[in-house]
Amino acid sequence: MPKKPNDAHIEAWTLDQLAKSAFFHRKLHEWKLLEIADQIDQVRGENLNWDNLNISEQAWNKVIHRGIKPVVVFAHPFVLQTVHGSAGYYRMLAMVSQKSMKRVGISLDSYEAGKPIPNEEMAITIAHHLNRIVSVLVEADEEIDAREFDLWRGMAAGSQAQGSWQNNKGASAEVAIREVILRRLQEREIISGEEASATRIDLGDGRVLVFADEPDVAIYQNDVPQVAVEVKGGIDPAGVLERIGAALKSLQRTRQENPNSVTVLILQDVSMTERAKEDLNLSTGTVTYLFSAKAILEDEEQREQLFKIMGI
To answer: What is the pTM for the complete model shown?
Structure first.
């Protein structure tokens, strides 16, 4: 029989799931998948010339006979050049990666990020390549359902997000809290999607938010720390004292730079021991506010309190 997980392992895995889900959700909006799809759907494709774009006759007829707008399925140079970011829409529809596109000599990264495609020749090259692949996919289905195209793009987006997650994944608690803060900044339109993964973010009011190692999150004004946030995860009680000690040293350094700074410590409470609680009780001069990671992730009031403290 498989070993039943204990409470500590359940919380650790749940935190990992929350971090990953938040990361994927942010990528959905960062890549503007819905906005770009809506823009493409508004294009009057019936006014475009679809000849010589490497679309097979069988695939074209299947799409037309189902009453699906061709512009939703097949790439057109006009759309690629006028709807910025649409190269990513059609690449994901073809279910191919950015890396594989580079292997065939077509780099789309900058175009997917919103940079205009420089000329019609490049737009035609992209359309020809992706339409060839999409035509084969359409031909392979006996019947085409328009909802399937969303699934095709979703599969490619999920694969791309997984790659980004693997490249950026750190300790789950730190990643999860960072995602919460980034989502807040996006909701308040303080940062754009392109800047969402940056480590240094201008808050627009003279303050700068920085993601780093020590502290994990800090807000500066004129290079003077105003708020410092340390996040310490981990489920091993044996190492909690070391983790808390490292966090306290980081926050103490912030206080040395600015005695009036606000310091926040966020802990994964499952690993808290009585000794650790005693150490924290003796550190009230170092830690202004103490939160549990679980509370920040699951309790809206606690999140709002953190955001108020940070001034975001």
So the answer is: 0.64
